[in-house]
Amino acid sequence: MSISEPIKQFSKWIQGFNYQILHNIDDVKDKFILPMFQYLGYPDVLVKNNANSEINTIYFQPDIVEPNNPDTALVIINIYHPNVTNLSPAIVASSLGSIALKTLFFIITNGYEIKVFQYWRYRPAYCLFDMAINDLRNQELSAEFYQALNFPHVSLMNKNLDNFFTFQHHNLLEKHLRRYTYWRDLLSKTDFQPEITKKANQLLVVKPKIAIKCNLPQLSSPGDCEIEFSNILFRGIKISLNHRHILSKLMIGLNTQPHWQCRPFLRQVDKNIFEAILGETTIILSELEAIDLCLCIDEICREYKKIMIEFENVLETWEFEFVEFAGIRGFKICDVDPKLWELMYKFAHEFTYYKGKSEWHLFYHDNFSIRLSQGIRDRALITPKASGYCSLLPYTKITIIYNINEIHLQSLGKAAENAWQKNLGTQGTWTAKYTQKWLLEKYIPQVINYYSQQAHFSVNEIVTAIKTAQPKRIEILAIDDIKNLLPYLRDIQSWLNLSRENIAAVRLRLYYRTFTNLVRNTDSSINGMDYLIANLQKIDWQNSPGIVDSKISLYRKFSSFKNVINCLDEQVTRINNQEYEKSINADLMTRIFIWIIENGKISYSQPQMNAAKQALLILWEECRFEMRYVFSESSA
Fold first, then answer.
1. Residue-wise DSSP of 144-183
2. Given a cut of 70, is residue 177 above it in pLDDT?
3. How confident is the model at residue 67 (pLDDT cuts 50, 70, 90)?
4. Could you give the C-alpha distances from 525 to 300, 414, 555, 602, in angstroms and in order?
5. What is the DSSP letter of 602?
6. What angle separates helix 139-149 from helix 5-16, to the nearest 10 degrees?
7. How are beta strands 202-206 and 113-120 bridged, if at all?
8. Nearest to 131 by CA among 625, 597, 583
9. What SS3 state is found at 118?
């Protein structure tokens, strides 16, 4: 999806903004707030309130005919001095309480940190954003900030409507009904009877408040699911979610509590009240309903994920890029010159299995694809990919796709559960890895040799046009040089950088501990101490913004690698005592590990290396799955 020009301009400005230029309240207003709201499209209309020398309040509204005040303003901003380094809950409560809120948005900022509250008529203000300004350098986050606060969008909002009022009303109604024994017993009888049932590719998971019926993914087709609620107020509502939504939303944050903020479809809007965004439907749930929803999703997604991983493992497709186009699902195994593809296709038509009995008579005519079949069982199906594959020659290359096709895999799909795996192999259905090897080592050389006497093409030209995958990495458990861990760590860092939600601490504890131990004995002459200290400062800011200033001076005074390790040990201790971790912290920790391994001289034992490889493998396999399916689906 293309990014609009205003969003690009806003992102460019915020990425270039340096909060260090802010020295007083006027600087925060003139050098940060006013430019920011200009990029958000607001007119240059404001009222300044100097009643308190430590706070400066401004209002934004579209119409200057009426006076700017809390009754008419769209956005109210309370500006604090940059030295106020901790916008604590007490400051927030005081700021919110000092204004009779009749605005759409209320903002508190000191130029380094910003809190944005959205106001609803019948309920407390909701904190929409709470972050350091540096976080807005993330393009996705800055786009979300722009979309929520840009003037054309805000000016069309009706201040007198409350989208959450009806949901709040439903929740209060159920709460009051449950106070009375008769109604409580009646409501409890509406609960579903828990069960977990699997038949063929259908999985039904039922908890007292939620029931999810899922069609699990198959070799040649994606899955989907349907969600129902036992709540009498939601009876009759059935929410259908497709394969893409299951992967991009439900698959994130498995096995976490609703209030941990690890799941992108769920957020807490009040005490014991959660908002669930399921496809095109937004619904308000009680805490019990949210817990049951998460438990059902965990069960469904574990099986969903297990099947997808199993497919990839047995078909040997992990090292190939997954593609989906024009109803075709498959994996890219190599690129060839269009002339070569034309000859490959011609050879397949000339050597169909019913025209002879040589070892090369093993093809079946299949439109524009090459289908390897001897009439009993398909071996493989490969399809060309070009932006107009019916006319191939104008293109510089043809991508060959190992195709997951219903006809190609029908004998596998109709077999008993898991029996299809037994049909894989050189005498059965070929895996992607074997198909690639056969193409490059046998089929393409045979095609070139067969047509070598024809003068209208150059053998050397075609051979050099074959582009295979990048050189393979050493498998994690086979690594014996610490530098070979870097490609995997960079994958994990990219994954963590994309993740916006918190991450269950249990997923990171072993990773933090083993890699801290691995880099513990690094030569103190390592370059880039400023980089390491800066990342540790950012982690401390995320965890304890109120005390970070005192630590900064300590870091700078005692900036030795020994202190870096002490700080890493602190992070290991911290994560062992908490339920979830901010993804940005895990990202920063990974950047630190990468820098040390890349630039340091490290002494490590074999047990330290083996423990680190085991921890890395577990985390990288999660990273590999989510980068392939979850985040690719999110950006699709």
1. HHHHHH-HHHHHTS-TT--TTHHHHHHHHHHHHHTTSHHH
2. no
3. very low
4. 51, 63, 17, 11
5. B
6. 120
7. unpaired
8. 583
9. strand
The one-letter amino acid at 305: K
β-bridge mates for residue 114, sequence order: 109, 131
Q: What are phi and psi of 266, to 5 degrees?
A: -130, 135
What are the beta bridge partners of residue 229? Answer: 210
CA gap 58, 45 in Å, rounded: 9
Cα–Cα dist 398/336, whole Å: 5
pLDDT of residue 458: 59
Side-chain half-sphere of 327: how many Cα atoms within 13 Å? 2
- How many angstroms separate the CA atoms of 105 and 61, rounded? 11
Token output for 211: 């029931």
DSSP secondary structure letter of residue 221: B
> Two tokens at 232?
């009498």
User: pTM, whole model, 2 decimals?
Assistant: 0.68
Judged by DSSP in three states, 279 sits in: coil
CA distance 460 to 624: 37
> What is the C-alpha to C-alpha distance for residues 37 and 26, in angstroms, rounded to an integer?
15
Residue with tokens 């998460």: 294
Q: Who has greater pLDDT, 626 or 545?
A: 626
Q: Is 319 helix (H, G, I), strand (E, B) or coil?
A: coil
DSSP assignment of 293-311, as one string? HHHHHHHHHHHHHHHHHHH
Residue whose entry in the numeric block shows the structure tokens 């390491």: 532
Is residue 183 within 8 Å of 369, Cβ to Cβ?
Answer: no
Q: SS3 of 405, please? A: coil
**427-483 confidence digits (pLDDT tens):** 668 888 898 888 888 888 888 888 877 656 555 655 555 555 455 789 999 999 999
Residues 6+ apart with CB under 8 A from 510: 615, 618
| Assigned token pair, 633 | 């689906």
